[in-house]
Amino acid sequence: MFRILFILFISVPIVEIFLLIQVGDRIGAGWTIFLVILTAVIGASLLRLQGLATMRRLNECASRGEPPAIPMIEGGFLLVAGALLLTPGFFTDVVGFLFLVPPIRQQLAMAILKKGVWAMAGQAGFRETRTDAKGHKTLEGEYERKDD
């Protein structure tokens, strides 16, 4: 994990600097700065709208008694999107805007949820016992209740 983060911290700024130089060479420094600021403003507006919609879905899940796992993971993606959109550069803006697209964000959240749940289930001693006709899996495990 450290290796991946190290590579990202080195490569992303290099890509950003390269793209800023290339765009600045084509359209000029003033227009490049304007575009960077414009994408940050547009991104912040879209982030606000998407954040409110995600909060609404989180509240709906809670009111129905469903676990709000997907809206919570989407909220994490929105947090990352906000950081990326406020970071000056075009590469981070593209990735940030991708996280603002609801279908992409929902698919990523589902993938993380599925991977995370199964990884945690294996570590916690759960074992799959059966799958019904609809593909629903039943997990069997043990738990201990600890009262404070």
Task: Give an overview in words.
There is one protein chain. This protein has 148 residues and is mainly alpha-helical. The chain has one domain (2-124). The protein has helices at residues 2-27, 29-64, 69-86, 90-100, 102-123; strands at 127-131, 137-140. Strands 1-2 form a two-stranded antiparallel ribbon. Helix 2 runs antiparallel to helix 3, helix 2 runs parallel beside helix 4 and helix 3 packs across helix 5 (102-123).
Strand order of the largest sheet: 1-2
Number of strands: 2
Oligomeric state of this protein: single chain
The coarse overall form would be elongated
Residue ranges: pLDDT <50 for 5 or more in a row? none
Q: Which range best describes the helical content: under 10%, 10-25%, 25-40%, 40-55%, 55-70% or over 70%?
A: over 70%
Largest sheet descriptor:
2 strands, antiparallel
What are the SSEs and their pairings?
Blueprint: H1 2-27, H2 29-64, H3 69-86, H4 90-100, H5 102-123, E1 127-131, E2 137-140
Antiparallel strand pairs: 1-2
